[in-house]
Amino acid sequence: MRTRRMTHVLVTATAAGSLLVACSGAGGSSNSDGGGKSINVLMVGNPQMEDIAKLTKDTFTKDTGIKVNFTVLPENELRDKVTQDVATQAGQYDVATIGAYEVPVWEKNGWLHELSSYADKDASFDKADLLKPMVTSLSGSDGKLYALPFYGESSMLMYNKDVMQAKGITVPERPTWQQIADIAAKVDGAEPGMRGICLRGLAGWGELGASLTTVVNTFGGTWFTKDWKAQVNSPEFKKATNFYVDLVRKHGEAGAAQAGFTECLNAMSQKKVAMWYDATSAAGSLEDPASSKIAGHVGYAYAPTVATKSSGWLWSWAWAMPKTTKNADAASQFMLWASSKEYEKLVGEKLGWSRVPAGKRASTYEIPEYQKAAASFGDITLKSIEGADPANPGVQPRPTVGIQYVAIPEFQDLGTKVTQEISAAIAGKTSVDKALNDGQKLAEDVAKNYQ
Question: What pTM did the predictor assign?
């Protein structure tokens, strides 16, 4: 699938500095004559990944002798770094966290090791227990798994129940975006320094691009029609973007143009915003009293809609093995453990059941301890994941699968460039019209490759 063009598109950005979290020592991926094996793992710096970095040494390494060297990066930097390493076949990492967007594209380029053979051989892994949407999104054209899900997610609305109660507001379980905008206006300033809502404004196809595209979908817009006509400056796309930008500028978090998942998580957990629309996986962190001031006081609702019945995205941060690894056996052992029932139980017992990396296994939602910890958000999370439709996320046919992205190699570059302009509009440095007109030209250039 245009390997040469893809490599050029994907390796345009370079990663910034990284945080190296070494379990049993740092160093390259190599076989040690006396100390077993060492693997390098590159992963996104979300709370669930930070948890596994803390737990690996005293559990997985202790049991297997395999040393795991973690490099943890913010989302945008992670995407640049892993793309650069895999696309150029540099071979620096044995395992990397990627998502549903990369798997089918990278599999077609022969960059990933298939993982079904490893999962099938390990009866305790129980591949049949994985949720079908996760398996489908992480499989290649041959039907085999090319990544193992660490956790799965859709998107939903999270809100401060105390603030809503004080204001006499009832948040609908299935709200519309206009209802959310009206509520944001009413609760803005409800407490000193509190803003009405947090929405991602940080540029990046997987940051601002993810949340905005779900809004575009339900407003009736799309990046491309089924026959590859660019629609970035269409009336529907423009209406959705103006709504999003206006909402975050009027009632959104401080510094919104630099706020992504991590910043919004901090703002919500520290009671700096009254609502937040984002990943269902954030609930576990919000309900952790060790880090969240709002634990036990969060309400949850389905992703807001306009013209569609649902609008939640579908994503999985998953473990993938580049073809370049020289430690396939050790890497596969780590990935199988990291996505296992055993690991979920470890997190629940050591760190708390709300922090279990859920959204990937049906059995997770049958664990009594997890059911209790996730009573307020577990059902909405599972139903949102099961109800997500990557093949038909809007009001018109699409040229590829994907809810919050377009499954083509060029989208990583296109989505990032367009969201850079929209982020600038959030910061007041340009207009939405200019941002989308410029984006339309970029999208038209991409469309020529497929028409």
Answer: 0.88
